[in-house]
Design goal:
It is a single chain. The protein is an alpha/beta fold. 35% of the residues lie in helices and 23% in strands. The protein has 12 helices and 17 strands. The chain has a 6-stranded mixed beta sheet with strand order 1-2-6-3-7-16. The protein has a 4-stranded antiparallel beta sheet with strand order 11-13-9-14, covered by helices on one side. A hairpin with a 2-residue loop joins strand 4 and strand 5. Helix 1 crosses helix 5 and helix 7 crosses helix 8. The longest helix is centred in the middle third of the chain and has 19 residues. The protein is elongated, with a radius of gyration of 23 Å.
Amino acid sequence: MSNYQQLDAWIDQHFDEEVRFLQALVQVPTDTPPGNNAPHAERTAELLQGFGFEAEKHAVPEAEVRDYGMQSITNLIVRRPYGQAGDGGRTIALNAHGDVVPPGEGWTHDPYGAEIVDGKMYGRATAVSKSDFASFTFAVRALEAVAKPAKGAVELHFTYDEEFGGELGPGWLLKQGLTKPDLMIAAGFSYEVVTAHNGCLQMEVTVHGKMAHAAVPDTGVDALQGAVQILKALYAQNTAYKQITSKVAGIKHPYLNVGRIEGGTNTNVVPGKVVFKLDRRMIPEENPSTVEADIRRVIAEAAAGQSGITVEIKRLLLANSMKPLAGNAPLVSAIQRHGEALFGQPIPAMGTPLYTDVRLYGEAGIPGVIYGAGPRSVLESHAKRADERLDLEDLRRATKVIARALSDLLG
């Protein structure tokens, strides 16, 4: 039996245990907002200890977390050294995030039940990305039980700030000097290896008018009417954005979305203030500073045409795009080779219109890719929608791909 077959066999023998591990993780909510994620980190550390893995708990200071808009963050690092310093071995980090958006409405399964029906596990974060807490952990367990590498190291990075941008997740670990791996793999889907992704600019726009009684509307300035004109100008940009195409396979063109709006005080009152939040996806070829300046210009010009309207603009997030680093070639080739063998189809290397916190590793000069347990697309996984689910066979095969790739890379 080959080394790869032995790794596969170990994962098959322990797969029921891996599924139970994932169920335990899904059953601890990590809705962000509000972002009280330390309890999940504690539970994860407890479960890892049962495998003989000691998780370092790195709590981000409470004041910093609160100012950021969340309640608690404890990031975890599990270090598994296999050789001696200076032996030429590589340190490979495996990163998955535990924070997720709230379930929302429309579920036919308990969002925290981790119920298994027809070979699929249902629940928030089953696909993105608690599934890769499981795939990465059990890949490392298989590696140590079978391949027994003699040099290099693996680190598990389980972090809790992807939904807000990653600055207090991987970004915080890197800035604190707590880790500096040579290569990294981040949570993803099983049918492609992602080497690039979009950037994201999020902004909060506050439109001020003057509140008045609805019986005498002329004594006020309707902030909602002002906001409508600004929104029309912003949405009109999407037509122009379709002409800006990316050369990265899997990424098409920029897009702008307004995901939240609130304002006014009552039905019979002219609204004096309206606040909305926008999300502008940036293709890798775009310059973030230019994009932000252009959005601000569009808003200012639309507001200038509305008498009595003033506007405040606040940047909430600027996540740079992920661009491929030359050093990621060993990761890409290993995952593609084993992915094709186990999934029976070619695994393309491509980009994704999502943005992730993987970019922070790239900005620190650490080559990385996105790969993990999941279906062909975000749409298929129902991520960020009702009835998020994971095909357990995708979990099994992705775990094998990661274990085999680690065995090659730590050879």
